[in-house]
Amino acid sequence: MPDIPAKPVLLTGASGALGRVLARELAAAGWTLRLTDIAPFPDPLPPRARFVRADLEDGVAILRQAEGCGAILHFGGTSVEQPFEAVAGPNLRGLYHIYEAARRERARVVFASSNHAIGFHERPGEGEARLDADCAFRPDGYYGLSKAYGELMGRLYWDKHGVENVNLRIGSCFPRPSNARMLATWLSYADLVRLCAAAVMAPRTGHCVIWACSANPASFWGRDHRERIGWQPRDSAEPFRAELAGAVSGDPVEERYQGGSYCAMEYSRDRPSPRDPFAPD
Ligand code: 15L
Fold first, then answer.
1. Whose CA is nearest to atom 10 of ligand 1?
2. For the domain 9-264, what is the CATH code?
3. Interior CA angle at 39 toward 154 and 263, to 5°?
4. pTM over 0.90
C-alpha cells in the first residue's frame, strides 16, 4: 500500500484538538492537506497545507473545499453534548453537505463518529460478551443521535451512490486516560493517526464501522470491520490501571452505561439501584 494519498485530503474540524493532531502528523508524513474549520487554525500551517475558514452549514463553501480531494476526514461539527438546536446545524445539515461534496468528488468519507451513538448499551461485566459494531444504535443524547445519523448517512450514500465511508466510533481520544471508564474507551493520539491513515489508504472499504479505541484489555467492544483497512491499535490504557481504577463517579447511571457521564446528563428516569436488574427497554 502506498503511504501517501494520490489526491489531496480535506480535513474538517482542523482547528479542534483531534484535527490539530491529524493536521500535524499527516502533513509530517508527506500528505497534502486542505484544512478547514469555523474557527481560525491556531498552529503554524504545516507544509503543503492550505487553510480556509468555512461553516459546515455553508454547502457551497464545503463543495469548494472538497474540489479535487480523494478523501474527506470529517472531524468538524459539535463534539460534545449540546441542546438540539446547537447540534442540528453542524452535525445534521453540515454532514449532508460533506456527503454531497464526497458524492460529487467520488471521494471517501472518514467520519469521526462516537461511542455516544451507542452509549446506552450497558457496560459488559467480567466475562460477558463485548458489544459488536453491528449492535443497535442507543444514543445517549442529541450529540450521540447526530453521530448515529452520520453513520446512517454513510450507509445511505454507499448503498445509493457508491460513496465509500469509514465510520470511526471514537471512544475517548485524549493525550492520556483520566478516569476508570477510559481504561476501556481510551484511544491514543498515535493510534488515531494510524487509524485515519489506514482508513484513507485502504484500497476498498465500502461502508464500514470501526471501534476506535486502543488495545485496551478492558474494552467494551468486540467485532468490527477493521480487517478491511488493515488497522490494529498498538497502545493500551492498561498501564494507567493502578492510578485510575478508583476514579469513578458514584452515579449509578454514569457507571452502568458505556456512554458514562453523557448518559447521566438530563437523565429524568428514576436512578437504578446497583443490584436492580434495570432494563430500560
Ligand atoms: C466524545 O465523543 C467526545 O467528543 C469527547 O469529548 C469525550 O466525551 C468522549 O466522547 C468520551 O466518551 O469520553
1. 172
2. 3.40.50.720
3. 55
4. yes
